[in-house]
Design brief:
Order of helices and strands: HHHHH
Shape: elongated
Protein name: HTH cro/C1-type domain-containing protein
Keywords: DNA-binding
Largest sheet: none
Number of helices: 5
Organism: Paraburkholderia haematera
Strand content: under 5%
InterPro entries: Cro/C1-type_HTH, Lambda_DNA-bd_dom_sf, Toxin_antidote_HigA
Helix content: 55-70%
Number of strands: 0
């Protein structure tokens, strides 16, 4: 398993992309509520697939970039929480 560093919440990256644009202006242009956008920018909500598509179109990036960034963040967060031990299925020879 590869070790992943603590990735930034995609909302922080989005904040950089938006520069000096106001939350209100961006929310209006994206067609989302100011509250929904603020939750993402403050790291309290993730970027959904729909939001990734909107951001890709509005910012000239790919929707995949935002989705992958969110998935990496979510996975890292999940890996930091304690989990019970899971036994590997020995009958599956391809299991790592």
């Amino acid at each position: 398993m590869t070790s992943m560093h603590n990735p930034a919440h995609p909302g922080l990256v989005l904040r950089d992309y938006l520069g000096d644009l106001s939350v209100t202006t961006v929310a209006e242009r994206l067609g989302v509520t100011r509250a929904a956008l603020s939750r993402i920018l403050n790291g309290h909500a993730g970027i959904s697939a729909d939001m990734a598509v909107l951001l890709g179109a509005a910012l000239g990036t790919s929707a995949e970039m935002w989705s992958i960034m969110q998935a990496r963040y979510d996975l890292w967060q999940a890996q930091q929480r304690p989990h019970r031990d899971i036994q590997v299925f020995p009958e599956l020879s391809h299991a790592a």
